[in-house]
Structures are given as structure tokens and as C-alpha cells.
Design goal:
- The protein is of the alpha+beta class.
- The chain folds into two domains: about 60 residues; about 55 residues, no CATH class.
- About 55% of the residues lie in helices and about 20% in strands.
- The chain is built from two helices and five strands; from the N terminus they run αββαβββ.
- It has a three-stranded antiparallel β-sheet with strand order 3-4-5, with helices on one face. It has a two-stranded antiparallel sheet with strand order 1-2.
- It is rod-shaped and about 105 Å long.
């Protein structure tokens, strides 16, 4: 019976110590996990900030260009044709221009246009 008395206190003490050690270990693991997620979040925020800064500085200016149309001894620019078509549309309609498609027919000395996919018109060049 002497052996039974010694076994009971020996086994009871380690169980309590093991439970306490497991609880401490879990708490420590949670804290390290929280630190890692916080570090990842700050790293992501820093990376996003760097990306937006890089995008702002790499924006390029469009090339300044003009398109000339020459026919039958005349010369006009594409921007002049577009301005004429827009002015003709605005003179006859009140709706805003969202899109405009222009078709130039030099043999007829005319530019045809379609505004917002619906309204058609023509302008003499």
C-alpha cells in the first residue's frame, strides 16, 4: 500500500502542471499569431501605399498630334470636322453628347455623324 499512496500525489501534481503549461502555451501562441497578422496587415498597407505612389508618378502625357485630311485641293483637320459635327448637333438638339461617330466622305465633301448611337446628321466640309 505504500506504493499506492506515493502514486496518487505524484500523478495529481503533474496533471495540474500540464494543464497550466498548456494554457500558457495556447495564450502565447495566440499572441504570436496576433502579432503576425498585425505585421502582415501593416506590410500590406505599406505595399498598397507604395503601389499608388508608383502609379501616380508613372502616368504619361498623351502625345500631341493632329490628323490632316487632304482631298480635292482642300486640307482640314480631324478636330475641325469633329467640332463642326458637334456644333451642328448642338444647334438642332438639346441632349448631351456622350459619344459621337464621324464618317468622312471626301468624294461627297461631307461628314456624316451619329451621336449617342441614335441621332444622325451631316455637315458639309
Amino acid at each position: 500500500m505504500a506504493n499506492d499512496a506515493k502514486k496518487t500525489p505524484v500523478t495529481a501534481a503533474p496533471k495540474a502542471e500540464v494543464k497550466a503549461a498548456v494554457a500558457v502555451k495556447k495564450t502565447a501562441e495566440k499572441k504570436t499569431a496576433e502579432k503576425k497578422t498585425a505585421a502582415k496587415k501593416t506590410a500590406v498597407k505599406k505595399a498598397d501605399t507604395k503601389k499608388t505612389a508608383a502609379k501616380k508618378t508613372t502616368a504619361k502625357k498623351p502625345v500631341d498630334s493632329k490628323v490632316y485630311i487632304q482631298f480635292y485641293g482642300k486640307q482640314i483637320t480631324a478636330s475641325d470636322v469633329a467640332a463642326s459635327c458637334e456644333a451642328d448637333y448642338k444647334a438642332n438638339n438639346k441632349a448631351a453628347i456622350k459619344s459621337i461617330d464621324i464618317y468622312v466622305k471626301p468624294e461627297e465633301d461631307t461628314a456624316y455623324y451619329v451621336v449617342n448611337g441614335k441621332v444622325e446628321g451631316k455637315v458639309s466640309l
